[in-house]
Amino acid sequence: MVDNFFKLYNSGDTAAYRKFLEPASDNQAQLNQMLNGFNNAWRVIGKVNIMRMNAVAPDNAEVWVQDNKYDAWWKFSIYTDSLQHFKRRTIQPVPFDSYFIKSGSLTNKEISDAVDHYIATKLSTEFAGNVFIAKESQVIYSKSFGNTQNNQPNTFETQFDLASMGKMFTAISILQLRDQGKLTLEDKVEKFLPALKNKAVSQVTISQLLTHTSGMGDFFGTPLWEKLKDSLHTAKDYIPLIEADHLSFDPGKGWDYSNLGFCVLAVIIEEASGEKFDNYINNHIFSVASMNHSTVGGGAGGGFSTVTDLQHFSDALLGNKLLKKETTTHLLQYTVNDRYGYGTEHHMLGSENIVGHSGGFENVCTELNLYTKSKYTVIILSNSNPPFGHFLSNKIKELLVRK
């Protein structure tokens, strides 16, 4: 079934798709929707190569593939009936997996040449930005590609929007205040926002906000955000959005990425420190780390920075200049679900633990990855749309994490 499915998929033949799908539904609208899904997948992903298959159940197979267009990784979940007749399929992008780690470490030149080749052959028209790879103090790769949004060549002085990568600054600020004894991670929101009328949010802990286990949601695209977005300049300007939030699960009982939860953290930073959020970040992170070309965003991210400044940030964090040594160690090791910790994304690849954060928005695709075992630092800043910077990050992981 799986081999036949991918032979059909790789044909890109709409008529063959329709013939294959007709037995799966006698509802014409549903059939058209499924056909559009097949055509859209082909348009975006193109031909794929089967890399691994896992039979989850007699009627469900998970198949990891790599596409030919970008060398990107995807997981197809294929569902059948009891007679192995196709019913439906789902597709999701996935990070590079330990199962596919190759043997034989590469030299620095081989790594550099491979990154050049990948960008030239796979992302030549899609990626514009800066790429930096270092191992401890040795720079392995440092190049700029394409133009800025103002059609000027990107350079290492170019500032890029960080999007959600900026959540790391919010998280580190909270941990600094914890180090100073000004809060604990088990403190509830009500301690710092006693006037908050949203009693469900009042009972959420700081730890749950940091780890996206609060049950809080997002705000982008909501009617209230559309109404208020031009007036959202300070941390406390987000309080009406916080008041209107409805938890999607009991705090601590699930996981759901929440931009709004990090907006709450920004208000807590102000209340605990006595400083405005942007002043706090400037004084206690940017200044300490010599990030002289960075600007502050909000609690949920944003702001602008350069590769050089993020290299300084990484050095300051790993050198325990921003947090106590034991706090830094905990930040780099702790996760709630093997994927997310205190405002940090975690990716285990073999024996390697990669910690950092990505960011994605319109014309923004960024990643900071700290390879905590092998001591690589990888920085990708781009004014490209997602997911092309993430594809590049995956390819670099394939090159750096080898047996």
Give a written overview of the molecule:
The protein has 403 residues and is α+β, with helices and mostly antiparallel strands. Among the domains are: 2-94, Nuclear Transport Factor 2, Chain: A (Roll), CATH 3.10.450; 160-343, Beta-lactamase, CATH 3.40.710.10. It has helices spanning 2-9, 14-21, 28-45, 108-122, 167-179, 189-192, 199-202, 206-210, 223-228, 239-243, 259-273, 277-286, 307-318, 325-333, 388-400, and strands at 48-57, 60-67, 73-80, 86-93, 129-135, 138-145, 160-161, 304-305, 345-349, 352-361, 364-371, 376-382. The chain has a 6-stranded antiparallel sheet, sandwiched between helices. Strand 3 and strand 4 (86-93) form a beta hairpin. Helix 2 (14-21) crosses helix 3. The longest helix has 18 residues, at 28-45. The relative contact order is 0.13.
CATH class of the domain at 160-343: Alpha Beta
Separate helix tally: 15
Can you count the beta strands?
12
Give the overall average pLDDT: 96
**How much beta, percentage-wise?**
15-25%
Q: Might you state the CATH topology name of the domain at 160-343?
A: Beta-lactamase
- What is the C-alpha radius of gyration, as a whole number of Å? 23 Å
Largest sheet: 6 strands, antiparallel
CATH architecture designation of the domain at 160-343 = 3-Layer(aba) Sandwich
Q: Percent helix among the residues?
A: 25-40%
Order of helices and strands: HHHEEEEHEEEHHHHHHHHEHHEEEEH
